[in-house]
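Subject: sequence -> structure tokens, single chain

Hey, anyone have a minute? Need the predicted structure for the following. Not urgent.
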Amino acid sequence: MDIHDSLQLPCGAVLKNRLAKAAMTERFSVGDLKPNQRHYTLYENWAKEGSGLLITGNVMLEKAHLESAGNVVMHKEFLPELKKWAKAATSGGNHCWTQISHSGRQTSIFNNLRPVSASNVKLKKLGFFAKPRALETSEIEGLVEKYATAAELSKQAGFTGIQIHAAHGYLISQFLSPITNKRTDEWGGNLENRTRFLFEIVKATRSCVGPDFPIGVKLNSSDFQKGGFSEEDSLWVIKQLEELGIDLLEISGGTYENAEFLLAENVRQSTKKREAYFLDFAEKVRKESSIPLMVTGGIRSLEFCNEALNENLLDVVGMARPYLLYDNFAGRFLAGEVTPGPFSIRTGIKAFEDMAEAGFYNLQLDRLGRGKTINKNYSAARSAFHLIKHEFVKALANKFAG
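Reply:
Had a minute. Here:
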């Protein structure tokens, strides 16, 4: 088995190969929160490069809760634009799945001064996030239906699957973690109650899209925070997800407060040597579950990909940043022509490091969406300033548009 081999998912859908572009927030929408030409251009080019699976950046449930002011919101009135996006994104005979998400307390103050969450626990990050209020039971039930409706709209638009984002400290992750879920009702407390939101979303989604449409879940191996969502918790959740019949599990980790998924220096050296940041946990999952497994983070060489696939450590190789560091990355990687090397961008100011990282990659996305080539020469300071300015200006555009 190697990365070029196809993969049949439990629902019957087939990925033409084992390489997936993991989700990266595009931040392209302005004011109307619809897909636009930059989405079409970017994803058509990625589709032609040869990846078996493309997963979009966060596609949000509500305008009031955006992960970025440039997010697309899943709405039935946007179907014409969503169809154009899906057509472009699947033009290479590949799959493209929408990543469906709600930011919860990780909604910036530029977008919402009173976000919602499982409980009223504030995010401690640069002062850009307001204290949330706890969701009412009726609101939680309404959000379950919104996730399912968003999946149904994705299918109608022509996307070939969906991924439910339950990682990285977004709303579902906020319900899963005892740090952010202090509820005493049926949606909080013990692990079974804290996972109820995720499981109800999966069940409602399957009911809407039917048995043949792929449903993926992105889940933290842990939050990497004392007292938070642990590996033991995650393994229990994965067993239940297998019973619910999901088609692909992507393993990640961390939250905005501990961005294991973002900053490579957070990863211990022993795991770096093995390339894949979450491969140790993937081995534990393999002992407990047969769900098709996607591992993203740190994987670099084609040789290592094939070794991991041959050893049955994973089923799909997820990559993200290399797509923004090399033109025509997927095609060149699958042909063995490029092995991504280490790359980092730093301001020297700890509080701004992740902002510089995000800003740099957003600049690359913007270039590719305009049909330009990658440019690695942006400074850390410019990258950080770009992100702040970008979010503020687009948040204003959203407010004036709505």
